[in-house]
TrEMBL record:
Protein name: Universal stress protein
Domain UspA: 1-131, 139-282
Keywords for this protein: ATP-binding, Nucleotide-binding
Taxonomic lineage of the native organism: Bacteria, Pseudomonadati, Pseudomonadota, Alphaproteobacteria, Rhodobacterales
Lineage: superkingdom: Bacteria
Length: 287
């Protein structure tokens, strides 16, 4: 990982993204590009004033990164809507990683929540790290997730090349369903039969996960299978809490257009409610 891009709106929460990116830049000896988008859908005098102020702030930040942290940093101010500006910056700079904060204020308010977050993550060709927690050193436990799809396999292999888990414990989580327990008449199934059925489904899920892992070059990972007793986003976050994970890795696309791991469902919901960092990895596109 040699090139990082940070989208900032100069808010306190964006500072978390900058601090995490700084730690990563130092760890990997990577260069950084700081980007701020000025909404150009306002009077010209306001656009010009915000552009000039943003340019000055970015230069000050870059100087601090260079002099204090030893990080080579470039800056760029873009006049556009937030979504278009960041997507264009990613297309131009082709960073290895885009780092953003979880929330917002003013001109970038829609980049980090709701449908614009989905559009941003869906549109860029690089992994997106959403920094929710205050950075406190390198990641210690990375929880990777999979729905056993080819897209998930590609995302996990891509994650491996970033090196973010080189010095961390790593686990691989698969959430499995037990369809019979969701039927309207499932309450009539004896408790012992429900228990045995769930145990069978868990064994099948464990076998499928082991088979999936053996078909990749991911190395040895601690394997976790978990029944989807609650909606999948909550099960993922619950597992992360129990495992004391400080980074969750998710693919933005899963089995199909309506798959549960598709951005807009599980991944988007986790991005919205997580208190720890989330890395969203898009499908690799053909050149």
């Amino acid at each position: 990982m040699k090139n990082l891009m940070v989208a900032t709106d100069f808010s306190e929460r964006s500072d978390r993204a900058l601090r995490r990116a700084t730690l990563l830049a130092r760890q990997f000896q990577a260069t950084m590009l700081l980007v701020h988008v000025v909404d150009d859908d306002q009077p010209r005098r306001i656009v010009d004033a915000e552009r000039d102020e943003a340019t000055k702030l970015l230069r000050q930040m870059a100087a601090t990164l260079r002099d204090v942290d030893g990080v080579t940093c470039e800056t760029r101010v873009i006049l556009a809507s937030p979504f278009v500006g960041i997507a264009q910056a990613v297309a131009d700079a082709t960073p290895d990683l885009l780092v953003i904060g979880p929330h917002r204020r003013q001109v970038l308010r829609d980049v980090f929540v709701g449908t614009t977050a989905e559009r941003t993550i869906r549109s860029v060709d690089c992994p997106v790290l959403m920094v929710n927690a205050t950075p406190a050193g390198q990641y210690r436990h990375v929880l990777q997730t999979t729905d056993l799809s080819d897209g998930s396999r590609e995302a996990l292999l891509w994650f491996q090349t970033l090196g973010l888990a080189d010095h961390a414990r790593t686990s691989l989580l698969h959430i499995f369903d037990a369809p019979a327990l969701r039927l309207v008449f499932s309450h009539s199934i004896p408790k012992d039969d429900q228990k045995h059925y769930l145990e069978d489904e868990q064994r099948d899920a464990s076998r499928d996960l082991a088979r999936f892992l053996s078909s990749t070059d991911l190395g040895r990972l601690r394997q976790i299978v978990r029944y989807e007793a609650a909606p999948a986003p909550h099960e993922i976050l619950k597992a992360a809490g129990e495992e004391h994970a400080d980074l969750i890795v998710m693919s933005t696309h899963g089995r199909s257009g309506l798959a549960k791991m598709l951005i807009g469902s599980v991944t988007e919901q986790v991005l919205r409610i997580a208190q720890i960092d989330i890395l969203a990895i898009p499908p690799q596109r053909a050149d």
